[in-house]
Fold DNA-binding response regulator.
Amino acid sequence: MILAEDSTLLREGLIRLLAEEGHDVVAAVGTAPELIKATEEHRPDVVVTDVRMPPDHKDDGMRAALEIRERWPEVSVLVLSQYVENRYATELITSTGGKVGYLLKDRVAQVDEFLEALDRVAAGGAAFDPEVVRRLLTRTTHVDPLETLTAREKAVLELMAQGLTNARISAQLHISQSAAEKHINAIFDKLGLSGSTGLSRRVMAVVRYLGS
């Protein structure tokens, strides 16, 4: 096993914990480049890495994990993070072949859960923190109403934002005024703008558009 963690205190604590549980830590490194180099040298059965690591202290550890997945697919990877990085978490979760896990660092304090996840990943399975999955599901199931508009409706809304009247919009798009009004009503419906609020639906639609 290779452990990648830039916090010396946490790294040493994890080394001791893993050794006590019978895991052989062949290398413990503090930077993403060292992780890649150590993996190439030792070809471990599993890599445990933090997301934020030197040299950039951003997502270096995660990018190293994805590189390892690509270059050495036989190596299992367990990523630890203090936060959910949506883009990379999604890439890991949707990757094929198992041998991957993503846990929030708070889960490490729950030693039994951490070790169970590690064993599962090392055995070729997958282990994802419930909070990570919940946040990703919340993110992916929320659809921006603006994204539901057709290309024509988006064009109409753009002209509305420019202050054009229905007559000017129909002339600009070479459609009838009734067709323009139909598109505008469809926009109101898709954006959930009712006429019962006392506010101008046209203004509210434009505000939504400009705020996107």
